[in-house]
Design goal:
With 70 residues, this protein is an all-alpha fold. Helix content is 39%, strand content 0%. The chain has 3 helices and no strands. α1 crosses α2. The longest helix is centred in the N-terminal third of the chain and has 12 residues.
């Protein structure tokens, strides 16, 4: 197997910001929880904010973007 197929195989990938936004958006639709008191979950509705805070590489796969985008 060629290593060229996986150029960033030793890099750390983040959970897709699009998926993170999807999860939080649906979580917030069920009302507040004990965690909303301590952190502002609405910040997770901004994909660019999530990307800047998550660290790692966002692989930005089209399938994920299509399935989990608004």
């Amino acid at each position: 197997m060629s290593l060229d197929m996986y150029p960033k195989q030793y890099e750390q990938y983040m959970l897709s910001p699009t998926i993170q936004k999807f999860v939080i958006k649906h979580w917030l639709s069920y009302g507040s929880s004990q965690f909303t008191e301590r952190i502002n979950l609405t910040e997770f509705l901004d994909v660019e904010w999530i990307n800047s805070k998550s660290g790692g590489i966002d692989c930005k796969q089209k399938a994920i973007m299509d399935l989990f985008n608004d």
